[in-house]
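Supplementary Methods S3. Input chains for the assembly prediction are listed below.
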Amino acid sequence: MGGLSVEELKTRANDLRKDVIIMLESAKSGHTAGSLDLAEIIATLYFKILKIKPDNPDWDERDIFFLSNGHTVPIQYAAMAEAGFFDKSELSTLRKLGSRLQGHPERTKLPGLENTSGPLGSGLSQAAGCAYAFQYMDNNKHRFVYTILGDGELDEGNNWEAAMFAGKYKLSQLIAFVDRNNIQIDGTTEDVMPLENLRDKWEAFGWHVIEIDGHNVQSIIDAVDMAKAITNRPCVIIAYTIAGKGVDFMEYDYKWHGVAPDAKQAAEALYDLGVIDEKKLFEEVGQ
Amino acid sequence: MNGYPLNPDLFSEQVKKEPIRAGFGRGLKAAGEANEKVVALCADLTDSVQVSLFKEAFPDRFVEVGIAEQNLVTVASGFAMAGKVPFAVAYAAFSPGRNWEQIRTTIALNDQPVKVVASHAGVSVGSDGATHQALEDIALMRVMPNMIVIVPGDSVEAEKATKLIAENGKPTYLRLAREKSPIISTPESPFEIGRAYVLREGADISLMGTGAMTYQLLVAANKLSERGINAEVVHVPTVKPLDDETILASAKRTGRILTAEEAQIAGGFGGAVSELLTEKLPTPQIRIGMNDRFGESGSGEELFDYFGLTGEKIAVRAEEFVRSTPQYHRNM
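Predicted structure tokens for the full assembly:
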């Protein structure tokens, strides 16, 4: 398949961020920080890694990808539209009545979504079940199952039931990302409910752990290549990210977890993302 | 109109008794033979919930998840994502008792054809006591959009139901009991998802039961007959979708309804019948079951007597009801 080059993927990630800002401003609600910080991972999955056919979403040899932390779905919708699953004009319907782009992803509404998610903690089990079926029942070594977990999501016990299950059955076609942005609704993960030592936790459950800079496209590609080469264990890629990445006033701030930008903030964000120039920003913000 | 063949030995001393879950075990194996996509998952209760037959026949399609009911149903949802027809089997107290939200999101809203199968439902679990006697599960599952809810009346019907739900393409809840219960039907008796069956016609009261309570209602109808009351008995193995037509037709014939379930009377099967009647044909009704209380330890038989779930005790309640309540809506 080949896919985009590293430079192209970087540009694509930025474009998806722009779409997210516009979608969330229009929706007037939604989860900004996590959607932005996943841009490189989502861009690299959709335009480099995933074996999928946007014109045939049910292709029976496709890879499976879904978000366990469904609240970051705006970045996935942006990538799906860019990939051709649906027309980009539909992005403006996010969270609105009658839209196929629900606030949290619903499989039955939009072809190309593999799962319905949002309530945290269930995705890893679902990915594990799917990977088990590919590995042991279908004996198909060419389909991989990818899922993204939020770091705060790991507070949920269901994850650790799944981690134990995947470790027991050595689910080598299961590749999980943890979006390690260090924030959740009430504050930083280490204040709310400490997750560290996170590497040790996964390793204790029988997983191979790879730690990367989640904004480095080459690192994401290399980590997935590595994960695919490990054939006797499931792999988790702990991707260190900056919440709100790309928009200066949102970065590192947990308050942007579940808030959408207003028009003025959106204009500033688009300026940070290099989408509009200083003059346009001045007009938008009206100063 | 009544073509439902009952077990001819039903009221004899030698009536065959068998746990309803045993029929499920046979049905699951048959479903596995008919469809290679059928897989089974269990949470450390494989023998107890009768998945052993399937496991022996199809070891590659059986998956042990350990004592982890949240993982049980979500892994099952993942199997469905891969195109399988998963049966996720545990005790009702824990599944759907513990993992209701996972079932709601990853199976019902996700509209995946996972079969949530729960054994050991009701007070008949017996001496393990209230912690293990699931009484709220019918209510919990029937309020969930997309979910089919089936409570077979005996092991023969459980076997038929299991084979059918493997092919219905829908999220489905199958509720089973642990204790041996009398076989009321025959292999030839009809079973379709969404249908209720008139087992005995009557004019004075309709006794409607789900699960093994239908047997108790048949016993009650005999007792009532001795006291000059002609009771109709309706077996309702599918709690959702309810067979509105059969239930309303029976209500029209008798004008008095008694519902019976081995579960809380709030929100469960009796509640479903009440909702229907209130909207379409308001009819006086009494609900037999657990009335806003938990169970306790004892043998299944002792508990049935203690909580008024036996045919004899139900007949007493029914007679009082018939003697005190006019037949407002009876078809003349």
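The first strand of chain B starts at residue 17 and ends at 19. Chain B has a mean pLDDT of 96.
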